[in-house]
Amino acid sequence: MSGPTVKAGASPALSPAGPVRTAGGAVLLDGKAVAAKVRAAVASRAAAFAARHGRRPGLAVVQVGEDPASSVYVRNKRSSSQEAGIESFAHDLPVSTGEGRILALINALNHDERVDGILVQLPLPAGVDTNRVMDAVDPAKDVDGFHPVNTGLLAQKRPRLRPCTPFGVIRLAQEYGLALPGLRATVVGASNIVGRPMALELLLARATVTVCHTGTRDLRAEVERAELLVAAVGKAGFIPGDWIRPGAAVFDVGINRSASGKLVGDVEFERAAERAGWITPVPGGLGPMTIAMLLSNAVDAAYLRTGTPV
Ligand code: GUN
């Protein structure tokens, strides 16, 4: 059995009773509880910003079209930001909106002094060049951390605004005291949103990182070696539970509907929880952490833009 060790002096228990364990014995990485803690810290920093600047930090969330999954995420992002004391600017554009009109909106938001953060919900409708749109966002307001400038800064070990889901994985691992340096970490999935920045975050944390993708020859062998696994594939139960290394820490980014309509991750949970040392639930793992880190980025962006201490 080999997996992460817990740092001396860490306080992994979020309740006095200690961490919650699955029936299989793994520690449940409670993203909902840690996200609530992050959101409380964001709310107090947002209030301090408002007291100093006479306005709340502002976050613009842009949605183009009405993709049902995106609509749920966007509603959640807007309501969570308001609850944390961040002013929410909603921009809902019809699915037929052309690229020029989207770029004009982003240009206006880039120059709007009330707006500290801009998020364009992905995916964009077919025919819109996603890279052109993401590149148009002012890197100082790029709360998704998707702009090449922010990706480049993360790659160069000087992170500024960090992609929310990978940042959420690191924050959750820290909260439970998981020692990442030297750990054999495997990321399954190589998207620009999760897999690639996740690899950069783990590298920054001094793990030894492997990234698996559709070109990987023997996925099972790679997963079986992983002391820390991040699954970011977007396919229900894609990773069989009996591939999990005993004692490993498993971070499941997937949020999928099973055939029976249940929300499930990319990892087959029950069997994985019998083998893992730590595991995130779905729902209640990285979903809430992603939103919490977005709010944290929005307040960071407000402080960074105004030249006041973060
Ligand atoms: N679509 C799925 N995940 C994300 C995300 O983290 N940010 C944005 N903007 N769109 C997404």
Structural class designation: alpha/beta
How large, in whole angstroms, is the Cα Rg? 19 Å
Strand tally? 11
Roughly what percent helix? Answer: 25-40%
Q: From the 3D coordinates, which CATH architecture of one domain would you assign?
A: 3-Layer(aba) Sandwich
Q: Approximately how much beta-strand content do the residues carry? A: 5-15%
CATH topology of one domain: Rossmann fold
Distance between the termini: 41 Å
Tell me the strand order in the biggest sheet. 1-11-8-7-5-6
Overall geometry: globular
User: What is bound: which ligands?
Assistant: guanine
Order of helices and strands: EHEHEHEHHHEHEHEEEEHEH
The largest β sheet comes out as: 6 strands, parallel
DSSP summary: helix tally: 10
CATH superfamily descriptor of one domain: NAD(P)-binding Rossmann-like Domain
The chain-level mean pLDDT equals 96
Top CATH class of one domain: Alpha Beta
Main features:
binds guanine, alpha/beta, 10 helices, 310 residues, six-stranded parallel sheet, Rossmann fold, 11 strands
Give the gist of this structure.
By secondary structure, this protein is α/β, with parallel strands linked by helices. Among the domains are: 55-139, Leucine Dehydrogenase, chain A, domain 1 (Rossmann fold, 3-Layer(aba) Sandwich); 176-288, Rossmann fold (3-Layer(aba) Sandwich), CATH 3.40.50. 40% of the residues lie in helices and 14% in strands.
